[in-house]
């Protein structure tokens, strides 16, 4: 049976088709979302979004991710109070990564640190120089 969407339909909203067609998802249907503090450029964390998480992020003004471990949506800050207010969302040239610029309230990392990369730590890479 084909369900038609009409004025009176209560069909769930979907991600804009023009946006969805530009995404290159992994095998699980996810796109990496790099989260950055909008005014300082500080990289806060990496999360994963499917079409619905991206739709919510684009339309609600708060960042929503797909939790790969819990297999559910989670809106950053709903339980911790460490909210991410969306300032902009951009798609990279290949369509396989998003840059979500936010106003971060509190810690971005679940460990309580400002960034997830602070919590993970420096791997002491060799520093290269310009030629």
Q: What's the structural blueprint in terms of helices and strands?
A:
Blueprint (H helix, E strand, L loop, with lengths): L16 H4 L10 E7 L5 E7 L1 H10 L3 E4 L4 E4 L8 E8 L5 E8 L11 H5 L11
Parallel strand pairs: 1-6
Antiparallel strand pairs: 1-2, 3-4, 5-6
Subunit structure: Homodimer.
Function: Catalyzes the hydrolysis of the adenine ring of phosphoribosyl-AMP.
Family: Belongs to the PRA-CH family.
What does this entry look like structurally?
It holds the Pfam family PRA-CH. It is found in: Cytoplasm. InterPro entries: PRA-CH, PRib_AMP_CycHydrolase_dom, PRib_AMP_CycHydrolase_sf. Mean pLDDT is about 90; it is low at about 1-5. The protein is about 15% helix and about 30% strand. About 20% of the residues are buried. The chain has a single domain, classed as Phosphoribosyl-AMP cyclohydrolase (Ubiquitin-like (UB roll)), CATH 3.10.20. It has three helices and six strands. By secondary structure, the chain is α+β, with helices and mostly antiparallel strands.
What labels describe this entry?
3 helices, zinc, Ubiquitin-like (UB roll), about 130 residues, histidine biosynthesis, single chain, disordered N terminus, four-stranded mixed beta sheet, globular
Structural class by helix and strand composition:
alpha+beta
Sequence of strands across the biggest β-sheet: 2-1-6-5
If classified by CATH, what would the architecture be? Answer: Roll
Strand/helix succession: HEEHEEEEH
* Integer average pLDDT: 91
Assign an overall shape.
Answer: globular
Stretches where pLDDT falls below 50 for ≥5 residues? Answer: 1-6
Domain count: the total is 1
Main β-sheet, in a few words?
4 strands, mixed
Radius of gyration: 17 Å
- The CATH H-level homologous superfamily: Phosphoribosyl-AMP cyclohydrolase
CATH class membership: Alpha Beta
Binned strand content: 25-35%
CATH topology name, in short, is: Ubiquitin-like (UB roll)
Give the total of beta strands. 6
- Counting DSSP H or I runs of 4 or more residues, the number of helices is 3
State the end-to-end CA separation: 64 Å
Catalytic activity: 1-(5-phospho-beta-D-ribosyl)-5'-AMP + H2O = 1-(5-phospho-beta-D-ribosyl)-5-[(5-phospho-beta-D-ribosylamino)methylideneamino]imidazole-4-carboxamide
Pathway: Amino-acid biosynthesis; L-histidine biosynthesis; L-histidine from 5-phospho-alpha-D-ribose 1-diphosphate: step 3/9
GO molecular function, one term: phosphoribosyl-AMP cyclohydrolase activity
Subcellular location: Cytoplasm
